[in-house]
Specification:
By secondary structure, the chain is mainly alpha-helical. It is about 75% helix and about 0% strand. It is built from 18 helices and 2 strands. A two-stranded antiparallel ribbon has the order 1-2. Helix 11 packs parallel to helix 16.
Length: about 500
């Protein structure tokens, strides 16, 4: 199959799966299909990404579809998060179906939206036209909004509308930024169909109008930064994560936030080339990343809901990623590595919190007390997931955060380094307290109506794989980064460029 076929198939496969979910009548069959087809679609996307690292950039449709090292790396992250969450979703919603919390129509709607979300996220990565990338990102907003309220409740509806309104306003800012990039490109000798093609803009970016590009990047940073969950535009994130079903929360935090950051990255080399490599856009991104870490530190210690705790953890980690990119140099490599590490750790944590919450009938951290002593794989997953997320050595999150610190020291950004240590230190202490309580605390008396735990619908082998596979990966990457992965990350970092 040629490059055109490979790229079109990445979009057609999840779209066909979405249609199949609507056509299937039996809800149990739909959930089985979600597990198997979701894993297959994720595996295919991952294989196509590997082709890029082996043979080079894939392009089709006149460069309107492009998969380069940067988008291929993010495709690998998406394949991990979506594949694991699809397997988990089949069992998670199976319990809801048997208890009558969801009906056949709800399950079909979930399946269609789930694969539709994958199609739109994949399109965000493979669209070589900045305008179509914006369209794809807006499509993720519309499709994932209805995933938040699969369970129609007042709080979930409120979270859905908050997410829809805040992110739509943010994406509107991104639209203005994209238009301004097109305006800045008027000075270039590009045809009207090529003005927003990244492959055409990148070589000629030094000729873009500097003042217009400055304004464009501000709109881009605010717009896509809203979708990425950067502070202070993160207000939608805690509500959406806490009210969405656990597989959806994992997809949100594990990849969708990174997709917003990916969109910002596409504009950094254009802006820096237009401004002569002064680092202006990088300083803005680093400042917003540092602010996100500090905002998360203020709120995270006081959270009593496990999923809201993980949501503010996402604000922290997207801040770490933004700071790494903003520092440039080795920080760019560290930020990409941290993107992968955070995706694996946060997927594990949300899966574990969701299963525990389903078993106890609440997401309250107090209700999770003693979950590690109960020898539940999900209790173990939540405990170790929280430790990984706060940067306990020798897991990979610790290593990528250490590399961000090195980048700050190399750049002489000592105030930034101090604020980073302050924020992450506060978060370390606050989350560690919650992790210890959840692991060894005294469990509260359970009401008779509470659902039993462990989660009975997940087979023992699958349950343990969903917990121990990401933990093993995070430990492995913490002590040994394979050459092929290090090379893939380095090639993705080269695409971002934009060094100080």
């Amino acid at each position: 199959m040629n490059a055109d076929g490979l790229l079109w198939m990445t979009l057609a496969l999840p779209a066909a799966c979405a249609a199949a979910c609507l056509a299937l009548r039996d809800p149990g069959t739909v959930l089985t299909f979600v597990r198997l087809a979701g894993a297959a679609a994720a595996a295919y996307l991952g294989l196509v990404a590997c082709v890029v690292f082996k043979t080079g950039v894939l392009s089709g449709a006149g460069d309107w579809l492009v998969l380069d090292a940067l988008s291929a790396f993010h495709a690998l992250v998406l394949s991990w998060v979506f594949g694991a969450s699809s397997v988990y979703a089949g069992s998670y919603f199976g319990a809801e179906l048997r208890e009558g919390s969801l009906n056949a129509r709800d399950i079909r709607r979930f399946g269609a939206l789930w694969f539709g979300a994958m199609a739109s996220m994949t399109a965000t990565l493979v669209c070589g036209n900045l305008g179509l990338m914006w369209v794809s990102m807006e499509a993720t907003t519309l499709l994932t909004a209805f995933l938040i309220c699969i369970h129609v409740r007042p709080l979930s509806l409120e979270a859905m509308w908050k997410y829809l309104i805040v992110c739509s306003v943010g994406v509107a800012f991104a639209f203005m930024g994209t238009l301004l990039v097109g305006s800045a490109a008027q000075r270039l000798s590009l045809g009207s169909m090529d003005m927003l093609l990244w492959s055409r803009l990148r070589p000629a970016a030094a000729g873009l109008d500097p003042a217009t590009m400055k304004l464009a990047f501000i709109f881009i940073l605010v717009g896509y930064g809203t979708k990425a969950g950067l502070a202070p535009m993160h207000s939608w994130l805690p509500d959406a994560h806490s009210q969405a079903p656990a597989p959806v929360s994992a997809l949100f935090s594990g990849f969708m936030l990174s997709a917003g950051m990916y969109c910002i990255l596409r504009f950094i080399p254009l802006t820096e080339a237009a401004l002569g490599g002064a680092g202006w856009s990088l300083r803005l991104l680093a400042g917003m990343g540092t602010l996100s870490i500090l905002v998360a530190a203020v709120f995270i210690a006081f959270q009593q809901d496990a999923k809201r705790l993980l949501a503010f953890s996402s604000v922290e980690h997207i801040g770490v990623i933004a700071l790494g990119f903003g520092l440039g140099g080795v920080g760019t490599f560290a930020a990409l590595w941290h993107t992968l590490n955070h995706a694996a750790a946060k997927t594990l944590a949300f899966h574990s919190a969701g299963a525990l919450g389903q078993g106890r009938g609440t997401n309250s951290l107090k209700a999770f007390a003693g979950s590690l002593r109960a020898a539940s794989p999900w209790g173990q997953g939540l405990f170790w997931g929280l430790l990984v997320l706060i940067g306990v050595a020798p897991f990979a999150v610790f290593m990528s955060e250490l590399m961000v610190l090195k980048a700050a020291a190399d750049a002489g950004a000592y105030w930034t380094l101090a604020l980073f240590l302050l924020g992450t230190g506060i978060i370390f202490v606050g989350v560690l307290r919650h992790a210890v309580d959840a692991a060894w605390g005294e469990p509260p008396a359970m009401p008779s109506a509470a659902r039993p735990e462990p989660h009975p619908e997940v087979p023992g082998v699958t349950q343990r794989l969903l917990v121990w596979a990401p933990l093993a990966l995070l430990l492995l990457l913490g002590v040994w980064l394979p050459d092929w992965l290090g090379t893939a990350i380095a090639r993705a970092a080269e695409v971002v460029g934009g060094a100080r």
